[in-house]
Design goal:
Elements lengths: L1 H11 L6 H10 L3 H23 L2 H18 L9 H22 L13 H8 L15 H13 L2 H12 L4 H8 L3 H19 L9
Helix pairs in contact: 1-3, 2-3, 3-4, 3-5, 4-5, 5-9, 7-10, 8-10, 9-10
């Protein structure tokens, strides 16, 4: 009963001013229901970004678990100078970057591509998107999604990351700068190069449908 009350309180925080600060405060106090609510709010975004960055469903699941373990351990160091979501984005990017470095040093297990997503996993991936009608929506139909994933996979990791953060997840340039730990001007120049690289990788047949 007490846990039900605590969980209800945590859920109520979503609609109140300062909800993010209050939720973080509860998590820091060891409130497991509050942390479960934090995970519920961000797990779609975490899994979705990891899956698109890594191109592997099972690896994305592992990374998502690692991300929330790190979030739990590091919340005490979150200073609130950015949105919590932006801070979590940075953790996702670092975890995915580290995973790719691990692959370069060790034999990678058989992958499970995004085309092999189950219905539940597709729903989970979609839950990470703030805008279902965003720039990728025109090419995200079933018959074209494989081409988009293949084009993204051809980009360098940093190009893929900056493009997904801006065009898929809708972060502003200053939020991307925080997530990547670079200057805002650098974000704009890298984003322009990433967009051009994506257009070239995608090919001319669906021009105008690209971000």
């Amino acid at each position: 009963m007490a846990s039900d009350v605590a969980l209800s309180s945590a859920k109520a925080l979503e609609a109140t001013p300062g909800a993010e600060d209050a939720l973080v405060a509860l998590c820091r106090e060891g409130d497991s229901d509050a942390f479960a609510q934090l995970v519920a709010q961000h797990e779609g975004m975490v899994f979705g970004l990891a899956a698109r960055l890594l191109g592997d469903v099972e690896e994305a699941k592992d990374v998502a678990q690692d991300v929330f373990i790190q979030v739990y351990r590091a919340l005490g160091r979150f200073e609130g100078r950015s949105r919590l979501k932006t801070w979590i984005y940075r953790i996702v990017l670092n975890q995915c970057r580290n995973r790719r470095r691990f692959w370069s040093r060790h034999a990678r297990r058989a992958s499970c591509s995004l085309e092999a997503l189950t219905a539940a996993e597709e729903a989970r991936l979609a839950a990470g998107r703030e805008d279902a009608d965003g720039p990728f929506a025109g090419v995200a139909r079933r018959e074209r999604v494989a081409r988009v994933h293949q084009a993204l996979a051809r980009l360098r990791f940093e190009q893929r990351a900056i493009l997904l953060l801006r065009e898929q997840d809708g972060l502003s340039c200053d939020e991307i700068a925080v997530a990547l730990g670079i200057a805002e001007g650098t974000v704009k120049s890298r984003l322009a190069r990433a967009r051009e690289a994506f257009r070239q990788a995608l090919g001319p047949n669906i021009e105008g449908e690209m971000p």
